[in-house]
Amino acid sequence: MSQPELVQKALDNLGILALHPMQEEARAAILEDKSILLLAPTGSGKTLAFLMPILQMLEPGKNKVQCLILSPTRELSLQIESVWKKMGTGYKVNSCYGGHSMATEMQNLTEAPALLIGTPGRIADHITRDTFALDGIHILILDEFDKALEMGFQEQMEFIINRLTKLKKTVLVSATKRGEIPGFTRVGTPTEVNFIDDEETQLDLAVKIVNADNVDKTNTLFRLLCSLKGEPALIFFNQREPAEEASAYLNGMGLFTGFYHGGMEQEDRERALIHFRNGSIPFLLTTDLAARGLDIPEMKNVVHVQLPQKKTEFIHRNGRTARAKASGTAFVILHKTENRPPYLEDVREEYKLTGTYPVPAEPDFATLYISGGKKNKINKVDIVGFLSQKGKLEKEDIGLLEVKDFFSFAAVKKSKVKDLLRAIKDEKMKGKKYKIEVASKK
């Protein structure tokens, strides 16, 4: 298949007619130049901007890792892997990250993927163990490299780069423009593709102040979410504990919420995101870990309960809404005793909470856990067929499906769950009985 045909097939599989200007400019630069710095706002499509030229540069039939992508978080690694798989390239991909089974990763790497994605710590661990050959890697992508530096991964990244002796191309990807590029990246003077100049002026984003009646803010947050009449929201805190405590409070008040932060086990973090993505919980309380690099729907509403010190992190949080010319609102809950950070000095519009608001109705969907996944040869078609034929569900009763290595999740109309579980209690899927139950949020 020719390169134009490969590109067109990938676009077709993604349901995209064409790359947008940033992606096209980035693709051209990555194909042409040795060192590239790609700067673009959160949510602008940077992942596809570098995956498309990678597809054009891979050599078919080569049984070695050809491209290494380092990302600061496991969620971002999984998101990149997901996009690559949706492209339907025919090239094998694997992701490696802390919290994932090392034995499983080592087994996956016995047949080398063309594209390897991972967090710096885990990839450095694999290199130390000599799990895969390095001499085939000629492309290196450092995704969200500024975030990786902030998270303290410089030593691991330097260790990795020093062992990549056959590199022909290095791409640095970031949502923020920083000063001097660290010398260990060995990029010299890169070709710059810069689309963040207008990032701070999001014309379709409204920022509104919500005055809190108490320093605690949880009751104000509850009233605010009720006023949104069931619209989903991503709610930001600076620390983990307040996010968990506020989630418990809101659940006690009749809302359906979950929390997400770096102190959770990987499986619990995945579950929280799955519930949020499929709509079985409309409100996710989180830290800046969710400000970028996550595969979650675009939010119409972002709420800041605790404000970050840096304007850049405020911008990244807000980047979860008002994308692609869509409108969105960032609500900032402030108590009169708080000092406004400089980046809010000019914000004067107030969102007033008047009277009382009814608690939003329960979500339409619930999430089912299925104890089988890809390694059990189960795919989405199998699950839909099973739920339809054995569970008597209609197409509209089934929502988002997610199939992991050893388990799966299915969103199902909440009104159908009880009868469904009764109907499939003794049934088998592909000749084997699996545990199927309502999934816990953690």
Summarize it:
The protein has 442 residues and is an alpha/beta fold. It is 32% helix and 19% strand.
Task: Describe it.
It is a single chain. The chain has a seven-stranded parallel beta sheet, sandwiched between helices. Mean pLDDT is 90; it is low at 198-203. The longest helix is centred in the N-terminal third of the chain and has 14 residues, at 74-87. It contains 14 helices and 17 strands. A hairpin with a 4-residue loop joins strand 15 (398-403) and strand 16. Helix 2 (21-32) packs parallel to helix 3. With 442 residues, the chain is α/β, with parallel strands linked by helices. The protein has three domains: 3-194, 3-Layer(aba) Sandwich (Rossmann fold), CATH 3.40.50.300; 205-344, Rossmann fold (3-Layer(aba) Sandwich), CATH 3.40.50.300; 365-438, Alpha-Beta Plaits, CATH 3.30.70.330.
